[in-house]
Task: structure prediction
Amino acid sequence: MAKRRARRPVQFKSTIAAAICARLAAGETLRTICRDPLLPAEEVVRGWAIDRPAFAAEMRRAREIGYATLADELLEIADDRSADTYIDDKGKPRSDAEAIQRSRLRIETRKWLLAKALPRLWGDKPEAGEGTSGPFPLEALVLGSLKPRSGSGK
Result:
């Protein structure tokens, strides 16, 4: 007899929601998270966010933390020179243009996503907030956009 595959959960459970949010905060995409066979499908999680405003708020906050993780990755990618060169068959070091272009693409993609997802902080012209000494608040560099905005009810 064939072995039955375990069904993906579809009923909302706070433990599953917390696991999803933890992974979002670590910088994973919802699509990647929902590929895990132990977690609900992406459309189920998005349905939970529509039906449960508290869960939607938790997801939004987790994504903001995840975006700060992406910002940290920008420096790591830019500073990683390990694949920039290789040794050819004559023993001479050569530039690896493909690896360099891949790093450039990874950086540009993350920059674009941050600018679109959080334009107030990562756009071309970030807005100055209260108590800032310049155009970019210090807490934005440290925490992303985690500081609650006044009057937003968050």
User: Anything to note?
Assistant: The chain has seven helices and two strands. The first helix runs from residue 14 to 25. The beta strands are 85-87, 93-95.
